[in-house]
Amino acid sequence: MNRGPSYTIYVEELDKVINFVDREDEALWFRDIVSRGTAFPVTIYGPEGCGKTAFLRYMVRGLGVSRDMVIVYVDALEHFDVGKALFASYKEVFEFIQDLISIPLGASIARAIMSVVSRFAQRIGLEGKSVVVVLDDVYRAIGLDEVDRYTKSLYEWIGYLHERYKASNVAIVLTTSEGMSKRILSKHTYVSIYMMWNLPKKSFEEFVEQLNPHIDAEAIWMHTGGNPRATIDLARHGWSIDKWLSKIYEDRIRRAVHIIGRDKILQLAENPDFDWAIAEKLEELNLMIELRRSSAISQIPKKDLDLGIGEEWAWQIPAYRYAITRFAKS
Question: What pTM, to 2 d.p., does this model score?
Answer without folding.
Answer: 0.92
